[in-house]
Specification:
about 500 residues; mainly alpha; 26 helices; about 75% helix
Length: about 500
């Protein structure tokens, strides 16, 4: 903080309390439309309160805020590009027939009673192989949401199962950027970190699967919609073909070869676009409002709209029409706007020293093993609320507690695990966090609607606190042994 006096924790909490209070009012007024502008205004107003207090009472120059904002924004460029690519992919996978084909056969094969647990397992495996929760949700997750709707499963439950599975794989995959970041930020070997996470992650997933199984077995078959109406609507509108599954197959190969996410998403979108030209030209013409089937005229226009704009396809079934409509890249712009506002708020909290003030106070409460882990979890949650980005939360959490863990004689792998059990998995539960905004937009289910059903994400922090309370697999080390133990721990 350049030797400047940092605000008292109670003063530092004012922008956060103001933001949360304003968001509660806005969400209550606008509901699911809060992401269309209300939430963004709340974040900007929260930033304004932070800046005002800092400049007037602590004489923090405006230039300090500008520099921090520039630094923060530069770190999210790839995230924004991935977000736009997800919108492009969602539109192309739908119009090309990839998602309709998956929904069509999924309805035929999946049982309503075992749908939730099956969804969670499928998303866990896909995310474990891909290392990306975002890719998992935007591809197989969207298809499974459609299957669930056709089977009469509440969208909130389905979204919870999708996100629970996606974040299990994201958390445990050696290909995951958050997993790599958490291990490197805490200076722990990647596979030591993954093995140590199993002690909390596997029980959390197991309990989640049991809950989804019980909920599925209690599903009232009488509430299942007319499946034939969905299958007939899909088959009469789209060219349902197994050839469309070449697109997810190639996507899977690219993921297995560890191709960067942005390249995978873009390539998959282009392949789906080609598939749309071959198998769904009538759909493209309908989107272009031109029945000439001309190329490059109507077909190119329809494909371009699929990539960047909103699409509506008439299937003869109102519920199905909503299911196959897409927003393209334009549909992600509110989310991009929200991310930019969230980054501004987070940057102002960092530049003002308010975030440092709050975390210092949290660290001062540490008196035992449990309070150490609880403080780490609490800080991870706080960072997700204030910075709006899980990557920033992971790095800051690691930086703040690394020396504390060393001084108290606890292994760095405990810090790396606790960071993932808090900062990584709870990011998707915060409406203005990049993860929460993205998944709500992609799935079309508001964050606060699916939150109660993301059992894995809710259980991970609880499980890490429980393990800390009983001390299972947690041991002391001498500070000079740290380097050895971070690379050669016995499990």
């Amino acid at each position: 903080m350049d030797n400047r006096k940092i605000p008292h924790p109670l003063i530092a909490a004012i922008p956060i309390v103001f933001l949360i209070g304003l968001l509660v009012v806005i969400i209550n007024i606008f509901g699911s439309d809060a992401l269309s502008g209300g939430s963004q205004i709340a974040l900007i107003m929260g930033m304004a309160v932070c800046v005002l207090i800092s400049i007037v009472f602590y004489h923090v120059p405006w230039k300090t805020f500008e520099k921090q904002m520039a630094k923060t924004m530069s770190g999210i460029f790839v995230t924004l590009m991935i977000l736009l690519s997800v919108g492009m992919l969602a539109g192309s996978w739908m119009i090309s027939g990839v998602v309709p084909t998956l929904i069509y056969y999924g309805i035929e094969l999946l049982s309503p009673k075992f749908f939730l647990i099956t969804t969670c397992v499928i998303c866990s495996l896909v995310s474990l192989l891909s290392g990306s929760s975002w890719t998992t949700v935007a591809t197989i997750g969207v298809a499974l949401l459609g299957v669930g709707e056709a089977l009469g499963i509440d969208k909130a439950w389905t979204a919870g199962a999708i996100i629970s599975g996606a974040y299990f794989g994201d958390k445990m995959s050696p290909l995951s950027d958050t997993t790599i970041l958490a291990s490197s930020a805490t200076r722990v070997d990647l596979f030591v970190h993954i093995r140590y996470m199993m002690h909390t992650t596997v029980p959390a997933l197991t309990v989640s699967l049991v809950i989804f199984l019980i909920a599925g077995l209690g599903h009232d078959l009488g509430t299942t919609v007319n499946v034939a109406q969905y299958t007939n609507g899909l088959s009469s509108t789209f060219n349902i073909s197994l050839w469309t599954l070449l697109v997810p197959l190639v996507t899977g190969v690219l993921i297995a070869r560890k191709v960067p996410s942005l390249i995978v998403l873009f390539t998959s979108s282009i392949l789906a676009g080609i598939m749309a030209l071959i198998l769904q030209p009538h759909i493209l013409c309908q989107i272009a409002n031109d029945s000439s089937l001309s190329f490059p005229g109507a077909l190119t226009k329809g494909l371009a709209i699929t990539f960047y704009g909103s699409t509506a396809v008439d299937t003869g079934c109102a519920a199905l029409n909503d299911l196959v409509s897409t927003g393209g890249m334009a549909g992600m712009l509110n989310t991009v706007w929200l991310i930019l506002c969230a980054m501004c708020f987070g940057a102002s909290m960092v530049a003002s020293g308010m975030l440092e003030s709050i975390t210092r106070k949290v660290i001062s409460w540490i008196t035992s093993r449990f309070s150490l882990v609880a403080s780490t979890v609490g800080t991870g949650l706080l960072l997700n609320l204030t910075t709006g980005d899980q990557f920033i939360s992971i790095v800051l959490n690691a930086d703040m507690f690394r020396e504390v863990y060393r001084q108290l004689g606890y292994e760095p792998r405990l810090l790396s695990r606790t960071t993932e059990d808090s900062a990584t998995v709870t990011s998707v539960l915060v409406p203005w966090n990049t993860c929460g905004m993205t998944q709500a937009t992609v799935l079309g289910v508001p964050t606060l609607t699916y939150l109660p059903y993301c059992f894995f994400n809710l259980l991970c922090p609880v499980m890490t606190l429980l393990v800390a309370a009983i001390g299972w697999r947690i041991k002391h080390i001498e500070p000079e042994q740290e380097t050895i133990n971070t690379t050669n721990n016995e499990e």
